[in-house]
Amino acid sequence: MIYVIGGRGRLGRAIEASCPRGEVVVLDRATYQDWWRDDAGASITRFFRNAEPGSSVFVTAGLLDPAVSEAEHTRVNFQLPAHIIESACQLGLRVITFGTVMERLVEHPNPYVASKAALGRFVADQAATGRPVTHLQIHTLYGGGEPAPFMFLGQLYGALREGTPFEMSPGRQLREYHHIDDDVAALSAMLNAGAIGVVHLSHGEPCSLRELAQHIFAALGQPELLRLGVRPEPAQDNYSTILSRSQGSEQVSFRPALEGVTDFLRALLSSFHREHEHQQRPA
Fold this sequence. Notes:
Structural class: alpha/beta
Low-confidence stretches: none
Radius of gyration: 20 Å
Number of helices: 9
Helix content: 40-55%
Shape: globular
Order of helices and strands: EHEHHEHEHEEHEEEHEEHEH
Number of strands: 12
Distance between the termini: 49 Å
Mean pLDDT: 95
């Protein structure tokens, strides 16, 4: 069996959709919302005690918003999965957690990245003792619904949707963009290949944010909305490191980022405009 904790998010939904019906259990949020607490071990053990040994627990629940407090990032991104690992692994279950490649790419992380880095260190320690636990550091995901408004793609999509200027830095930052379905296929292949401990899920073909923005605005016919170099360049970011393709994912075909993200946004805009036109029609 496969258990998904955080099934309402895009990654949790995609993992559920990839599993055969009857072989996946998506936990209700009310079941695990207090598992971050120090005394949660007994509750976690009660829930999983009848699970078949060798089953997998995917902890996709997490917070990304940098506006959320450091304490909340710690509770959801570190304490929750850490307690699940401690209890579920003792029952013979495999646990998979998710982080960000920024854990290995920035020296002074924000609270989100710091909480994921703490989880990565915990997983590394657990894996070193022989526990079946994997921490997958992933890149930027798209697909599976509208991008979050606080993220780069969400702000870019908002500008295209409303026809307003999009102001950004010079855009030298390097990013890998992965379609959610491609990553689910890759993580499955990597886990089947025996990935344990802290591993990154990369296709090895990043683009700069400048390249991405220029391609999208040109392809969608609104290049005049792009304002490059208006905002300052972040001091802490990745400007040069390119991660190699992850072992175990060699047979997975990743969508080219520029075309893939553009197609994704084009579909969102088309859906938005159809809905807007429908609402404008007289009854």
